[in-house]
Design a protein that fits this description.
The complex is a heterotrimer of chains A (290), B (286) and C (296). Helices cover 37% and strands 21% of the residues of chain A. Chain A has 290 residues and is an alpha/beta fold. Chain A has 2 domains: 207 residues, Rossmann fold (3-Layer(aba) Sandwich), CATH 3.40.50; 68 residues, no CATH class. A 6-stranded mixed beta sheet of chain A has the order 6-7-8-3-9-10, with helices on both faces. In chain A, helix 3 packs across helix 4, helix 3 runs parallel beside helix 5 and helix 7 runs antiparallel to helix 8. Helix content of chain B is 76%, strand content 0%. The longest helix of chain B has 41 residues. Chain C has 12 helices and no strands. In chain C, helix 4 crosses helix 5. The two termini of chain C are 44 Å apart. Classes of the chains: A alpha/beta (290), B mainly alpha (286), C mainly alpha (296). Chains in contact: A-B, A-C, B-C. Chains B and C meet through helix 2, helix 6, helix 7, helix 10 and helix 11 of B and helix 2, helix 5, helix 6, helix 9 and helix 10 of C.
Chain lengths: 290, 286, 296
């Protein structure tokens, strides 16, 4: 079977596919709004191992969100393939990946349903997939929210809590479904520095607990090196892989890492690449394609 | 440092200048819309001729005049001067009432928005009178005003007036206070603030209010024409045209009148929208 | 190891919320101390005074033909009204009841057609492409222009009148519902898809609640439009109802019932609209609370 061959080739192990191995091969995405061809992604390839905390860094409008959308199944790709655990997500035979609870996205501006309470939001996934009954799902939701430090706020609506709490709740909403890959699209972009540092620590704690594969898009290099295992630096539109940096800082990490020597060296190693692309993007006046 | 010239764009074609017509014809929605209208007309034709063709008259549709009859009646009526006279009369009434409503309504609305005391005094009576449908004013208006024309104009004015004031009020609330502060910090006085910040900020709401008010104006004019022609002198106009056709028994002509009014209303709203586009160029960018 | 502190671990003093009585009293006195209620009263009195002045006080030429506030009020409250209508006459309530009943029927029919139709039109591009053009072609035709057709199609007095009010409401409700669905942020659909929803789940949990604010705005407008059309229809071809009362009073030369009916119409129209708004606010707690927090 073709798919089994693929899993041998890319995972290196033979029998059981390990959950959360994401392989992006030679992906090209061309948009065509109003008759103008815009290439967003230009032959991008990445291999993400299961349980890896992978950070994607690039300037505004470079196409990183496009890549995430393709993985999540929100739109198609023009050529290339994306595999998850050896199974073809999208590619020439299957332009759009099926949306499903194995790759869950946490959105930039937050997409908690405003008309449901936090607990109802979190319980939504299991309830709708039929995995848990409504009552059990709500119980589990309250449990998980309490674990994340949001125990009191389960009964509140997203409009009533701060954006930091809402974002944490959204991550809980994703994790209750035990996804293979957690896709985060610049989730902390709109937050102030203080909230952001708390969110980072919360995310690290969650990652240490669950070891889910994370695909995190950001434009902030420090965030990338602080959080991730591996940092992929992308060029401006159309994006190609410019540089890959392995972050060897041991886990569990805390804010003291930010002042360590290792951190500083890693920043220095990567900074020039990122800075170059940022200047190019600025000169081209790239607008963030929403 | 990379410079701009070095960035390569393998695929990036100059914007193809497709004309509006070509773009419209190329759109799927346009053709589906045409199909929808064809099907609608076909069903209407079949339904209304059900008596002739099938011997069984469908309950409601069967009593309508068929589109083919309507088309024939329309071609005949296009030649008559009276038809175009009705257009002119209705338009005249609509424009008079509408323009007066804007002239009085916009400043009134702005005053309500800007001055809190003015609002506290004048808004409650305004709100108390607003729920009364404009047409309920027709008899009172007929008693009060000397001529039929003026009574119709008054009622038309009322309809558009309430709408435009509410819209201006709503629009004023949405003007971001930061724009005002930015202007003040750059040394603007109250006059500048009003003309250059508040007014352009309210412009979209004014045009929305105008578009909705235009629709209401047409409703009121047609209604007033039908009601007052049921009374003493018929004043012409498309509403009267419809009522006349009904009284005279030329049923397809009723539908001709209805469609004519629909077109007239649509044209008026389009004109407002076009004026809006010219007046607010910043809105067209996205 | 640095752990994120949960809120129960933090030693925070319990918040002291004043009980409802104290809060209510505070709000009441705050209002009484602000100029707003006095100005409001002043405004209404001013208006009534000007009304009286024009029609009864100065008896200006044209104004004198209209009944002034004192005439209207005395008629309205008198057990034996000269001109036939007061709060003590059963005909008054009959007219109110009949108009309200018509509105109720029209509103119910219009909502049960308009909301589902609007939801599907907003959600399915294909359906919208085929149905929206028909809606947009019929919508510019003023409702009263349908009167002769309505009389032809439906027999009797009741049905055409209700038909016209329903027609007006259906257009407004459908359009607003459709716009409501279209206004829902794409991100919510995507999030629902990610979490494993079927199409029905998306409809139930995203489309319907997401469109609800717009739907209720549309319903408020549709009640107003229904009243508008109803009054017009009753004037043209009715036998009972407030619109008919206005016109027939005019025809018979009795002006006071005319004014009474107008004011009653205003009140009832406002009341029905407020009821819709009230129901809307109850159903959409999340929206009301979020708006309250934004200070609106």
């Amino acid at each position: 079977m073709k798919h089994a061959d693929m899993s041998l080739e890319f995972n290196g192990s033979s029998s059981m596919p390990t959950p959360g191995a994401l392989t992006i091969r030679d992906v090209v995405k061309i948009y065509d709004p109003e008759g103008v061809n815009i290439m967003a992604v230009d032959h991008c390839s990445m291999k993400i191992t299961p349980g890896e905390f992978c950070m994607i860094v690039g300037p505004s409008g470079c196409g990183k969100t496009t890549l995430l959308n393709a993985i999540a199944g929100f739109h198609s790709i023009t050529s290339g393939e994306i595999f998850l655990d050896g199974k073809l997500l999208c590619g020439p035979g299957k332009p759009i990946a099926a949306q499903g609870a194995d790759r869950i996205v946490v959105f930039q501006n937050g997409a908690l349903f405003p008309w449901k309470t936090l607990a109802e939001n979190v319980a939504y996934g299991p309830m709708v997939q039929g995995v848990l009954s409504k009552r059990n799902a709500l119980e589990k939701a309250h449990e998980m929210l309490a674990e994340a430090g949001l125990g009191e706020f389960g009964g509140k609506y997203p409009g009533e809590v701060s954006s930091g709490m809402a974002r944490r709740a959204e991550i809980v909403r994703a994790l209750i479904n035990k996804p293979k890959v957690l896709l985060l699209d610049e989730p902390y972009r709109a937050m102030d520095g203080l909230t952001k540092s708390i969110m980072h620590e919360a995310l690290l704690e969650v990652y240490d607990r669950t070891k889910v594969t994370i695909f995190f898009i950001t434009h902030d290099l420090e965030e990338a090196i602080f959080l991730g295992d591996r940092v992929y630096v992308l060029t401006t539109r159309p994006c190609r892989l410019k540089k890959v940096v392995n972050v060897d800082i041991p886990r569990p990490r805390n804010y003291e890492v930010l002042s360590s020597e290792q951190f500083r060296l890693l920043i220095e190693e990567t900074r020039d690449a990122v800075h170059e692309e940022a200047i190019k993007a600025f000169q081209l006046g790239e607008r963030e394609l929403a | 440092m990379a410079s701009v010239g070095e960035v390569s764009r393998p695929i990036g074609v100059a914007r193809s200048r497709r004309s509006f017509l070509r773009r419209t014809l190329g759109r799927q929605e346009f053709w589906r819309g045409c199909v929808a209208i064809m099907v609608f007309l076909a069903l209407w034709e079949i339904g209304s001729r059900s008596g002739e063709w099938f011997g069984y008259t469908l309950p409601y549709v069967g009593l309508l005049p068929p589109p083919s009859d309507v088309a024939v009646a329309w071609s005949k009526v296009l030649m008559k001067w009276g038809y175009w006279e009705s257009w002119y009369q209705s338009f005249k009434r609509v424009l008079t009432g509408f323009i007066v409503a804007q002239i009085i309504g916009i400043p009134f609305g702005l005053m309500l928005a800007i001055n809190k005391y003015f609002r506290d005094i004048f808004f409650p009576p305004f709100e108390a009178l607003r729920p009364i449908p404009p047409l309920a004013w027709v008899p009172a208006s007929l008693i009060f005003w000397p001529t039929n024309e003026m009574s119709i104009a008054f009622v038309t004015f009322l309809g558009a007036f309430f709408t435009i004031v509410i819209n201006v009020l709503g629009g004023a609330r949405t003007v971001d206070v930061r724009y005002l502060r930015a202007a003040q910090s750059m040394g603007a006085n109250n006059w500048h603030l009003f003309w250059r910040i508040v007014l352009p900020g309210i412009l979209p709401s004014i045009f929305t209010g105008a578009a909705v008010g235009m629709g209401i104006t047409w409703e009121v004019v047609v209604a007033a024409e039908m009601i007052s022609s049921g009374g003493t002198q018929g004043g012409g106009g498309l509403g009267f045209f419809i009522w006349n056709s009904y009284m005279g028994g030329s049923i397809p002509q009723i539908v001709v009148g209805m469609i004519s009014i629909g077109i007239a209303g649509y044209l008026s709203s389009t004109v407002i929208r076009m004026i809006g586009h010219r007046a607010m160029p910043w809105r067209n960018l996205f | 190891m640095h752990q994120v502190v949960s809120s129960d671990e933090l030693q925070v003093a319990p918040r002291a919320t004043p009980n409802r009585l104290v809060r209510g009293w505070y709000l009441l006195t705050k209002r009484a101390r602000s100029p707003t209620p006095y100005l409001t009263a002043f405004g209404i009195l001013l208006w009534v005074f000007v009304y009286w002045l024009l029609c009864e006080g100065l008896k200006l030429p044209r104004f004198v033909k209209l009944p002034g506030p004192i005439t209207v009020l005395s008629e309205w409250l008198s057990p034996h009204p000269q001109q036939g209508i007061s709060i003590f006459t059963p005909e008054y309530y009959l007219h109110i009841y009949i108009s309200c009943r018509r509105i109720f029927i029209a509103f119910c029919i219009a909502t049960s057609i308009g909301v589902p139709l609007g939801l599907v039109m907003g959600w399915s591009r294909t359906f919208r492409d085929y149905t929206f053009p028909i809606l947009e072609t019929l919508r510019p035709i003023p409702i009263l222009a349908w009167v002769p057709l309505a009389i032809l199609m439906f027999s009797g007095y009741e049905t055409p009148v209700i038909f016209l009010a329903t027609l007006a409401s259906v257009f407004v409700t459908t359009l607003n519902t459709m716009l409501g669905v279209q206004s829902i942020d794409e991100a919510y659909f995507r999030a629902a898809g990610c979490l494993g929803s079927s199409r029905w789940d998306v409809f139930r949990h995203v489309v319907v609640p997401g469109a609800l604010p717009f739907i209720f705005t549309g319903l408020q407008i549709s009640v107003g439009v229904a009243w508008f059309s109803l009054v017009a229809a009753e004037m043209v071809s009715g036998d009972f109802g407030l619109g008919y009362l206005i016109l027939s009073s005019y025809m018979n030369g009795v002006t006071v019932p005319m004014v009474i009916a107008m004011l009653t119409l205003g009140f009832v129209g406002w009341f029905t609209s407020a009821m819709v708004r009230f129901v809307g606010n109850r159903l959409m707690q999340w929206h009301a609370r979020a708006l309250a927090l934004q200070g609106r």
